[in-house]
Design brief:
This protein has 174 residues and is α/β, with parallel strands linked by helices. It has helices at 24-27, 39-44, 53-61, 94-102, 115-123; strands spanning 4-11, 15-17, 46-52, 72-76, 89-91, 108-112, 129-135, 143-144, 156-162, 168-173. Helix content is 21%, strand content 30%. Strand 9 (156-162) and strand 10 form a beta hairpin.
């Protein structure tokens, strides 16, 4: 059975994007040494990438080439994607998607992007682990790591470590 995991960066005050949905603050850390936790190592173990429509739209606007040619990509949306940036499939029913993902046995699943979809999976007890990279930045506002939904849950700390340039890695299990 595939593990469903999160791997995400956030500012110290809990935001994943600034008030203009920008990531310039995060791009300032390109080249940071994450050692064994480096994204390139992480993505090697990922077979399926799941993202919400807002994350897909963000990636579509970005001028970079499609980065997920080696993975199966599923976009959770109720609207069709007319001219996709890369190979992908869409899903609209989160409960059916969770069941589909739990049936996979060909590699791990990464919940890419914002906290809204990750929170929907957490509320369904469908996220197994999450790695949060806390960057030493205060944004003062923006898109929160997790939207306030009223859902409450304790997590199990798997590990925590200080990394390059003041970044802290927090690794939790559910």
């Amino acid at each position: 059975m595939a593990r469903i995991v999160g791997y995400i960066a956030a500012s110290l005050d809990g935001f994943i994007a600034d008030a203009d949905d920008g990531l310039d603050w995060l791009f300032a850390y390109d080249g940071i040494d994450l050692g064994e936790h480096d994204y390139r190592r992480f993505i090697e173990g990922i077979r399926t990438v799941v993202m919400g429509r807002a994350t897909y739209d963000f990636l579509e606007k970005d001028g970079a080439p499609w980065a997920y040619g080696e993975q199966r990509v599923l976009v959770v949306t109720s609207r069709p994607i007319a001219d996709p940036k890369g190979p992908l499939e869409t899903r609209s029913d989160i409960d059916a998607l969770v069941a589909e993902l739990r049936g996979l046995d060909d590699g791990d699943v990464w919940m890419l992007g914002g906290g809204r979809l990750q929170m929907a999976f957490i509320e369904r007890d469908a996220l197994d682990e999450i790695e949060i990279y806390v960057m030493p930045e205060l944004l003062g506002g923006g898109k929160p790591l997790f939207p306030p939904t009223g859902f409450r849950r304790g997590l199990r700390l798997i590990g925590a470590s200080a990394l390059d340039r003041g970044c802290v890695r927090l690794h939790y299990g559910f």
